[in-house]
Fold each of these.
Amino acid sequence: MTIIITAFEQSPDLGQGQARDMRVRWALEEVGQPYDVRLVSFRTMKQAAHLALQPFGQIPTYEEGDLALFESGAIVLHIAQRYPGLLPDDGNARARAIAWMFAALNTVEPPIVDLEVAEYTEQDRNWYAERVPMIERHIRDRLDQLSSRLGDADWLDGAFSAADLMMVTVLRRLEGSHILDHYPSLAAYMARGKARPAYQRAFAAQLAVFTAGSR
Ligand code: GTB
C-alpha cells in the first residue's frame, strides 16, 4: 500500500527541514517504508479536498490505504506503532518514549513557536522588546530541564526512538538563534540525530523539492 504524504510546494526555508513533513519523512526513512509526496500550494491547502484530510488547512498529512491522518505527532506515532524500529518492545519503555514525544510537542515546542511567531508578527508592537526576553527565558527553563535529564546519555531513554526524532526536530527550530549556544549537550544531541542516515535521506528529499529541476 503506497504511503502518500503532503508537503509544501513552496516553503519559506526552501527545504531546510523546518516544515513538519520532515518529521514524517524521517520516521518513514527510519522504518524503511517508501512513500510518495504530494506537493501542495498555500491555496490548495485551504481548499475542500485538502481540508477533508487536514481540517486546519496545513501540512503534513498521511494517507495509507483507507487511513488518512493529520498532525505530525499522530502521524509519527502511527508509523512508530505500525512498523518496527522507532519504539521499544518493552511496554513500559514504549510508554515512556511516547511520553517524551508528547513532551517534545506539548512542553518544549510551544515556547519555541511563540518566539518564532513574535519574531514574524510582533516586531512592530510596543511590547516586543519586553516579550522576547520573556519567551527566551521560558525556552531556557525548558532547555535547562531537558539537558539536565539528558545528562551524558546519547538519547532520551535508552536507544534512539521516535521520542528523539520528535525532540530533535523541535530543537532544530532553534537553529540560527543564539539560544542553543548555551546548551552544548543539546547541540550535540541534535547533531547525533541529524547524523543518522535516515535523517540525511529525509533532509535530502525535502531539499530536493526546492532544487531546480529535481521534480
Ligand atoms: N500541529 C500541526 C502538526 O504538527 O502537524 C501543525 C502543522 C503546521 O504548522 N503546518 C505548517 C503549515 O501547513 C507547516 S510546518 N502552515 C501553513 C498554514 O498554516 O497555512 C510549520 C513551518 C513551516 C515552515 C517553516 N520554515 O520554512 O521555516 C517552519 C515551520
Amino acid sequence: MVVRHTMKSVTERAIDVMIRNDRGGFTVPTDRLYPFQWNWDSALAALGFATFNADRAWQEIETLCKGQWPDGMLPHIIFHEPDKDYFPGPDVWGTNQTPPSSGHSQPPVVSSVVLQLVNQTQQLNKADSLFSALFAYHQWFHDYRDPDNTGLVAAIHPWETGRDNCPDWDSGMAAVEIPVNLPAYRRRDTTQVNPEHRPSDRQYDQFLSIVKFGKDCLWNHHAIYRHGPFLMADPGIQFILLRADRDLLTLAHRVGKTREAAVISDWIDRSLAGCDGLWNPSANGFCAKNLRTGEFSKAITNASMLCFYADAGSETQRNHMLDHANEIAAGVKYTFPSWDPRDSQFEPQRYWRGPVWAILNNLIADGLERCGHDSLAARIHSDTLQLIENAGFSEYFDPGTGAGLGGKTFTWTAAMYLHIRDKST
Ligand code: GLC
C-alpha cells in the first residue's frame, strides 16, 4: 500500500498562518487576541510576505501608512474594523482619527523593512511613493519624542516600546498613579491566554491610566512629553530608530531626496551621540533609563542587544555587550531571552520578562552579522527556527524548555520563520 505524505512542511504552515491572518490589505497579529493592525507587527509581517508574494508585502506597508496622523505619527494600532471583543478599543483611546487608532506609536522598524523590500524586489518606485510618509514619521519621532534635541528618544507608554511589561519599565511605572476616576473595565486578554503569562491587573490599571492622561490632554504629544505620567528612554526604540534613520538615508539617496538626506544625517549624528545616555555603568551595558529621574534599569535585555543592529556604541561598549551576549547565550537553551537570566527578576514564561521573541531574535542576529559576529548570529537564527519547528507559531517561547507561549498562530512568528529560512537558503 502506498502511504501518501500529506503533512505540510513548516514553511507551508507558516504561509497558511499569514494568509489566515490576512484581513485584506493588512494582517492581524493573531486571530481574536489582537484583531487589528499593529505597527511593528505589520512592518515585520511584510518580510514574511516578501518570500512568497512581493505585492502583498508592499501592500502591508501601504495600509499601515494609511493610518498616519496629520503630524506624521504612525500609531501603534489601527482599528480598521470594529471588534467588540478587544479592549482597549477606539473609544478608550479617544484619538478622533480616521481610520480610528491608538494614541502613541511603536518601534519604528518600517523604513528598514522598506529598504529590505527594495533590495529584494528592485521596486524602488514603491519606496519613492512611500518616502514622504516615512520621512514624516521619523521627523515626528525626533520632534515629539526628543523635543530638546538630546539625541535620546523617549517612550511615553510601555506599550510604545512594544515590550509591554518588561522590568525595564518598573522604575517609570512606579510613579504612575491610578486616578480615582479611571473608568471601570474588563480585560479581554486574560480570558484568551494564560493570565500567569500576562501583565498583572495593577500593571494593566497603570497602562490605562497613562492612556487616560493622553486622552484627557487630547493627545497633545508635547504636553505628554513634558507632564505625562511615564517617560523613559528605551534601547529598543533608540536603536531601531537609529538603524531606520540609516536605512531611510540610503533610500533618500536612491530616490534623490537631497534636502531630506541632509536632515536625516543630522538625526543620525544626534542619536549616535545620544546612545551614550543609555550606558549604565553599573550594568556595564545599554539599559533603559527613566527620563524623569535619571534612574537606569538594572539588566540587559534583548533590546539592549540591538546596539549592533544600530551600529551604535564605542568599541569598548560593544565588547562589553558581546561579553554579555555570550554569557546570556551560554545560560539558556534557546537564545535570546527578553530579560537577563542572571538577574533575580527573570521569569522565563512571563511575556517580556524572560521569554524569547522571534522578531527580536531576527533583529539581533542581523546586527551581529553586520558586525562580524557570525557564530552567535547563526546560533540565534537556528534557535529561532528550532523553537518554531518544535512549538509552532507561538507569540513567544520559554528560553529553557522551548515551550510555545501566549497566542498561537502568530503572524510575525510565521513571518520570521519564512524570512530567516529564506535568508539562510
Ligand atoms: C503585545 C506586544 C507588542 C505587539 C502586540 C501585538 O502588545 O507586546 O509588541 O505589537 O502585542 O502583537
